[in-house]
Amino acid sequence: MSKLLPARTKYRKIHRGRIRGNATRGTTVAFGEYGIQSLTRGRMTSNQIEAARVAVNRHLKRKGKVWIRVFPHKSVTKKPAETRQGKGKGPVDHWVAVIRPGHVLFEVAGCSLTIARQALSLADAKLPFRCRLVSRVQSF
Fold first, then answer.
1. Residue 24, C-beta contacts closer than 8 angstroms, at least 6 positions apart
2. How far is residue 99's CA from residue 97's CA, in Å, rounded to a whole number?
3. Would you state the pLDDT for residue 1?
4. Residue 117, H or E segment
5. For residues 112 and 26, what is the distance between their CA atoms, to the nearest angstrom?
6. Nearest to 18 by CA among 128, 77, 94, 100
7. Whether residue 131 has pLDDT greater than 80
8. How confident is the model at residue 125 (pLDDT cuts 50, 70, 90)?
9. Would you kindly state where each structural domain of the chain is located, as residue ranges?
10. Beta strands 65-68 and 42-45, pairing class
11. Choices 3.40.190.170, 3.90.1170.10, 3.60.110.10, 3.40.50.720: CATH for 34-75+92-135
């Protein structure tokens, strides 16, 4: 299992920030025929992206193409357990993708609507926020 993380970044540690507003880019199905779109906001870890990808690929059984439309650019730090406060910020623990409502996360093509719906619902079960199925032609 390969972990998603940037090859290099300008700064190792970044502020937590807030996730406000709706997605402005990446809100339509661009590559495949069907996709899942986030309905709420949150942070998606590289492990969650990988788990959703594996779930979709296993269900499709190499009979379609899958596009991952998110990438974890943001580092999250964590101090070791039972450590006293102070002494600076902790080391980088994992990487996350910031997800706003309306962002298309995964897309599939080369399969029927029923298979795509089942595959993307399996991916949705792995994610920490609610999603809906969207199509290139119309929304469901």
1. none
2. 6
3. 55
4. helix 113-125
5. 23
6. 100
7. yes
8. very high
9. 34-75+92-135
10. unpaired
11. 3.90.1170.10
> How many Cβ atoms sit within 10 Å of the Cβ of residue 88?
8
On whether the CB atoms of residues 36 and 132 are closer than 8 A, the answer is yes
Q: Give the chain's mean pLDDT.
A: 93
**pLDDT for the residue 39:** 96
CB 69 within 8 A of CB 34: no
CA distance linking residue 117 with residue 125, whole number of Å: 12
Residues 19, 86: Cα–Cα separation, whole Å? 26
Task: List pLDDT tens digits, range 66-99.
Answer: 999 999 999 999 999 999 999 999 999 999 999 9
pTM of the model: 0.90
What does the alpha-carbon distance between residue 65 and residue 34 come to, in Å, rounded to a whole number?
A: 11
Structure token digits, residue 23: 């997605």
- Predicted confidence at residue 123, as pLDDT, reads 95
CB contact set of 36 (below 8 Å; sequence gap of 6+)? 104, 105, 106, 120, 123, 124, 131, 132, 133, 134
